[in-house]
Amino acid sequence: MPTIPVNLPDRSYDILVEPGCINRTGECIRETGLTGRVALITDANVALHYSETVQSSLQEAGFEVSAHLIPPGESSKSMEQVQSLCRSLIEHHHDRGSFIVALGGGVVGDVAGFVASIFYRGIPFVQVPTTIVAQVDSSVGGKTGVNVPEGKNLIGTFQQPRLVLVDPEVLATLPDLVFHEGFAEVIKHAAIRDAGMLEVIEAMDPDDRKVDPGLIADNVSIKARIVEEDERETSGTRALLNFGHTIGHAIESTAEYGTLLHGEAISLGVRAALYLSEKKAGLSREDTTRLLAIHRQWHLPLLLDLDISTESIMAALARDKKFTSGRIRFVLLKRLGGAFVSDEITREDIIEAIEHVRTPV
Hints:
Blueprint lengths: L2 E4 L6 E5 L7 H7 L6 E6 H17 L4 E6 L8 H13 L7 E6 L1 H13 L6 E5 L2 H7 L7 E3 L2 E5 L7 E4 L9 H6 L1 H11 L3 H6 L10 H17 L15 H10 L7 H20 L3 H13 L12 H9 L4 E2 L2 E2 L1 E6 L2 E5 L4 H11 L4
Parallel strand pairs: 2-9, 3-4, 3-5, 5-6, 6-9
Antiparallel strand pairs: 1-2, 7-8, 10-11, 12-13
Helix pairs in contact: 1-2, 3-4, 5-7, 5-9, 7-9, 7-11, 10-11, 10-13, 11-12, 11-14
């Protein structure tokens, strides 16, 4: 099965994509050379399915484990939850010789990674992602963080994992909505870097939970290569991963966290970005129509019909990390598979795009 390396100065690591590898979590971690006590962080939903399996595997590999639960959902991405976890780790006698295993979706990975980056000024952690979003995107690249009322992921760190274990078989237990929304990130990767992947996605049955490990590996490879080029998003390459996220994140935070799943908000953001790509970058109407059809195939929303004002979305967007010296870096498509970062998008352009997403497709 595929092993994708992420080659970074002094902190390279592997991403293993293998059906059933969750059953070998302890063995795989032991092979990295990690030692010490383990803090297993997961949420109440994931724990019902996989906590016992992972904990047993870690214990069989000789690790001493303590389990720490957080509530499911975006509301757990808070400083209050981070402090609670840090205090729980201290109460369970963890120290700088311990490490964390993040078992869950993007919320668990972001929170657990943030805790790992600050607990005793930093301890190692391992990602065991259990959702599509986490497997193809958020578990790779080292971004951690929490939300504040002013915006999404505005407080966080870069903390690369020591290992990422991706088991496609765990996707079978996801609710339909969570399974489908994750494909917003798969579609995004294809749109920015690999147009050929769109044919694979179009040929899939959204009701079939058997996701080809090769498709996940291809997505992970796209993310890994971009992270290698621009780990801390300084050169602009990593910003390509924000296609659809600029307006999508602003909609997600303005609607109050939990109203929309991440992938649903990104789908709306992609429609806005496609509108601007046609207007400003020469993207063909045919390419736009095709990409919107794929979003519909995966039951992703394309119409912003929530009772939130454009002004409030713009206010949230103005606080986004993608603003540099007051200017927005906006990702556009010249063609499918051909993304670039533009600093020519104005406030008026963005307002027009948001209003466009309020109209039926």
